[in-house]
Amino acid sequence: MFLQAGLLSLTLLLASRVLGVLRETALAAAFGSSAMADVLIVMLTLPDWLSGVLASGALAYVLLPRWAQETAGQQQATQNRVAWRLLWGALVLAVLMCAARIPLGALLLPGVAPALQAAVSAALVWSALALPAAMLAGLWAARLQHERDFVGLYGANLVVNGVLIGALVFLAGRAADQAAGQTLGAALVAAVLLRLLWQGWRLRARAGPPEPAPAAAPAPLPGWRIWTWAALGAGLPLALPFVARTLASGAGEGALASFNYAWKLVELPLVLAVQLVAALAFPAIAQAHAQTADAAGPGPGPDALATAVRSALVLAWTLACAAAAALLVGAPVIAALLFGWGRMQTPALGQIADWGRAGAWGLLPQALLALAVTLLATLGRMRFAVLAYALALALLLLAGALGLTAGQELMWALNAGFALAAWLAWSALGARAVRRWIPLRELLAPLLALLAVALLARWIGPAGGQAAPARTLGPEQVRELVSCALAALAVAAAGWFSGPQLRQALRA
Prior knowledge:
- It comes from Verminephrobacter aporrectodeae subsp. tuberculatae.
- InterPro entries: Lipid_II_flippase_MurJ/MviN (IPR051050), MurJ (IPR004268).
- Keywords: Cell membrane, Cell shape, Membrane, Peptidoglycan synthesis, Transmembrane, Transmembrane helix.
- Involved in peptidoglycan biosynthesis. Transports lipid-linked peptidoglycan precursors from the inner to the outer leaflet of the cytoplasmic membrane.
- It is found in: Cell membrane.
- The protein has helices spanning 2-31, 35-67, 72-99, 101-108, 117-146, 150-172, 178-206, 224-249, 255-294, 301-339, 346-360, 363-379, 382-401, 407-429, 431-437, 440-460, 475-498, 501-507.
- It is built from 18 helices and no strands.
- The chain is mainly alpha-helical.
- The chain has two domains: 2-209, no CATH class; 233-507, no CATH class.
């Protein structure tokens, strides 16, 4: 049962992420890296970003343990109470967004031209209209996660991305003007409403017969301190790329869009490899920790915990190094395949490839950080994870204050922030844990292979040289993709032959 659920979850997650990248591809084809693309990216991402920062992650952290101890009727009562509070809060926030849309637009898009101020204001109004549905969707997603309804959980993202891709394909052959923004805004509202219908249908299908109302008063909801820590723990990781994208807007029109596309080159392997490994390792690490805590004397508990951590760390690190090698070698051709369509111009593709290569190095500290945060969550020390991400955000804001707003500079600032956060998170675990849980030899082998690939790519030039529109791709680009795959495989092979940890992780 668990194997089938895991495979289904992985398949739907992969489909959701691929469709998300296709949405960015359709956006690039319809609007390129223009100023209008900057505006529309903010409009499309702001509702779900606000929901993720303010509610969605906190809902999962706080409500899942509570629901696990409640009956079905109590769960529904808790869900209804939280839903009304979310809706009222979202409505107030939406009104404030509409009232303050001009200064908010200047904050989120500092590099936008005066001629597009009306488009920015309209985009923020559409985002505000979509916000209540996005907030409620975050709550219903947490309930679907509790019910282990993976089809309902990940299928909701497929609904949203499918509607938006259809709208972008419709707009691709038309003028990329402010009227197109209005059409896409209406599609955004329709998409979030259809997502709610999908989630509501899945929840209704899972609902059992109604229970009689409990005689006792319902238990109070968790206090604000618990919600605050949960929101910070879930929201700060989402804030880092969002803030970097906003800072990039100050470099001029189209810079926000180009940075957004470049971050997608990094985000896809990050989510589908590094973060997925951390998520899959969480149950094994938690179970091994429980064995350690329950052990009355010497036994397999500590060894089981160390083995689980080392295996997950080696797998995440090796995948991060392999993905970084692929980007260092093949960023131009990958950028062309994903974004080199329609109105996307060649200089913008070159920027995306260069910034993606810089961001590739950030996969390494993020692999360390993902496992450290998993361990901190297992040990009940999430405040250190929050502090680590807060310091990374402070470093990014400092870079912006110093005027480092070019895309490549921001990528390196993000890399430095992730490295600082990873160092702090592992320091919070203690030197003894670091010595026990970090297998240096198995981590060093793929790192050395990655450095060799990087030096070779610098010496002979990265595959593809300069990024070109997708319509010009031919047999040469196929060879470049093969070189990209070979670079990733060489790094993975170094990890495979460096010791047994990677092989054990893959078998597990």
